């Protein structure tokens, strides 16, 4: 059962050009709350979707910084952050999910926090807007079939890139499910949104894997549905945060001595928050073209190196370039490197996954460590000899 009504809040500003004593013209309300199931059981997950309305009669926007769903006996059960700005006259719907462990009349609270911006760029810190929601929860019928449960698992997405999404189906009934058809939809683009599975035995679970591309940064939602047993259907919704694409790619090149041969090593560092694919590295020193190399993928916040044998040591100024694919587009980055000759020997290089990585300061530290080992060994031999002579 959902209690209807309009909660209107007159709020005070506190930052920017607005003083704490001035009356704000902010008029933001939770104008409606929709509940996906008004008579759930303790086995069900429900979606509570408040509608936030900004109805101020002036220019400017309202930044919805957080929407929280709370249960008095459990605290926060779900939340959504950084939902963007809404102009006067606009609304935004925010789906939140919860479940219930026990039956009875349940009271939930929707809390909205935000910041008002006027036409001049001044801001007013807004307090908390609250709205209660009442839901009647019952025990599941012992003689009725138990609906399968759906769970959506997704990492935080990055705008313009794909993420893996898994939908898990659990069959808690005493009978097998047949003719399963899973479907995933969302605010972005879902690659091959439908999956099928012939049978799911009682007490078992299965997973369906999807690829989802988020188009825009901000709060987004994924909706999963399962059809089974010739006409039955269950659904669930999951909110995800889509981060803005951050692109930061760096290059480095060096010449190394390894196994009495000389190699040119390229290192590609991806400091961004999305992987880069089809990386092609090349370079040039004066009129001489350096050998090129390719790397399939450099994951976000990681680096990859590749080593190429060369006939002789290179010196001088090198212009190196990496071309790569990100957000379905081709981009490139360049860097000028001063190569002064071979910078390491075989003992300075640790081989990881077939690629050579130089440990900074390895030469001096390795020599010192070796000297200490030799001295300790000589000291031990002298001590044993002394004890033998003394006997």
Report the CATH C-level class of the largest domain. Mainly Beta
Percentage of residues in DSSP E strands: over 45%
Q: Would you tell me the overall average pLDDT? A: 79
Largest sheet, strands/sense/barrel:
6 strands, antiparallel
Q: Spans with pLDDT under 50 lasting ≥5 residues?
A: 1-23, 345-376, 380-391
InterPro entries: Ig-like_fold, Transglutaminase_C_sf
Protein name: Transglutaminase domain-containing protein
Keywords: Membrane, Transmembrane, Transmembrane helix
GO molecular function, one term: protein-glutamine gamma-glutamyltransferase activity
List the helices and strands and how they pair.
Elements: E1 7-12, E2 23-35, E3 45-54, E4 60-71, E5 75-81, E6 85-87, E7 91-93, E8 96-99, E9 104-118, E10 123-125, E11 129-137, E12 149-154, E13 157-158, E14 162-170, E15 177-186, E16 189-191, E17 194-200, E18 205-213, E19 218-228, E20 232-243, E21 249-258, E22 261-270, E23 276-285, E24 288-298, E25 302-310, E26 316-326, E27 329-339, E28 349-352, E29 355-358, H1 362-390
Quick gist of this model?
With 391 residues, this protein is mainly β. It contains one helix and 29 strands.
Structure in words:
The chain crosses the membrane at residues 365-386. Keywords: Membrane, Transmembrane, Transmembrane helix. InterPro entries: Ig-like_fold, Transglutaminase_C_sf. The protein has 391 residues and is mainly β. It has three domains: 28-137, C2 domain (Immunoglobulin-like, Sandwich), CATH 2.60.40; 149-243, Immunoglobulins (Immunoglobulin-like, Sandwich), CATH 2.60.40.10; 249-339, Sandwich (Immunoglobulin-like), CATH 2.60.40.10. The chain has one helix at 362-390; strands at residues 7-12, 23-35, 45-54, 60-71, 75-81, 85-87, 91-93, 96-99, 104-118, 123-125, 129-137, 149-154, 157-158, 162-170, 177-186, 189-191, 194-200, 205-213, 218-228, 232-243, 249-258, 261-270, 276-285, 288-298, 302-310, 316-326, 329-339, 349-352, 355-358. The strands form seven sheets. Strands 4, 5, 6, 9, 10 and 11 form a six-stranded antiparallel beta sheet that branches. Strands 1, 2, 3, 7 and 8 form a five-stranded antiparallel beta sheet that branches. Strand 21 and strand 22 (261-270) form a beta hairpin. Residues 1-23, 345-376 and 380-391 have low confidence and may be disordered.
């Amino acid at each position: 059962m959902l209690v209807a009504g309009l909660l209107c809040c007159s709020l005070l500003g506190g930052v920017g050009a607005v003083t704490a004593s001035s009356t704000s013209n902010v008029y933001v309300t939770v104008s409606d709350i929709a509940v996906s199931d008004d008579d759930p059981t303790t086995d069900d997950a429900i979606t509570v979707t408040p509608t936030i309305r900004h109805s101020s009669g002036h220019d400017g926007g309202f930044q919805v910084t957080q929407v929280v769903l709370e249960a008095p006996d459990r605290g926060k059960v779900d939340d959504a952050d950084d939902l963007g700005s809404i102009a006067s006259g606009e609304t935004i719907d925010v789906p939140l999910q919860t479940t219930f462990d026990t039956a009875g009349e349940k009271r939930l609270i929707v809390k909205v926090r935000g910041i008002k911006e006027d036409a001049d760029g001044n801001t007013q810190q807004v307090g908390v807007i609250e709205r209660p929601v009442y839901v009647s929860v019952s025990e599941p019928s012992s003689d009725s079939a138990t609906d399968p449960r759906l769970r959506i698992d997704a990492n935080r997405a990055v705008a313009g890139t794909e993420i893996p999404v898994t939908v898990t189906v659990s069959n808690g009934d005493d009978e097998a499910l047949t003719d399963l058809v899973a479907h995933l939809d969302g605010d972005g683009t879902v690659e091959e949104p439908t999956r099928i599975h012939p049978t799911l035995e009682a007490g078992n679970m299965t997973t369906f894997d999807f690829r989802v591309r988020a188009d825009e940064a901000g709060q987004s939602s994924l909706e999963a549905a399962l059809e089974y047993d010739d006409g039955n259907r269950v659904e669930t919704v999951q909110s995800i945060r889509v981060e803005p694409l951050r692109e930061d790619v760096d290059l480095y090149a060096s010449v190394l001595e390894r196994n009495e041969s000389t190699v040119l090593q390229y290192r590609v560092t991806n400091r961004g928050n999305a992987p880069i694919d089809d990386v092609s590295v090349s370079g040039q020193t004066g009129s001489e073209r350096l050998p090129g190399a390719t790397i399939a993928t450099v994951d976000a916040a990681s680096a990859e190196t590749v080593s190429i044998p060369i006939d002789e040591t290179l010196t001088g100024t090198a212009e190196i370039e990496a071309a790569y694919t990100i957000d379905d587009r081709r981009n490139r980055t360049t860097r000028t490197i001063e190569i002064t000759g071979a910078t390491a020997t075989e003992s300075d290089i640790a081989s990881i996954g077939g690629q050579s990585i130089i440990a900074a300061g390895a030469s001096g530290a390795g020599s010192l460590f070796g000297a200490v080992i030799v001295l300790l060994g000589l000291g031990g031999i002298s001590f044993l000899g002394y004890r033998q002579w003394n006997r």
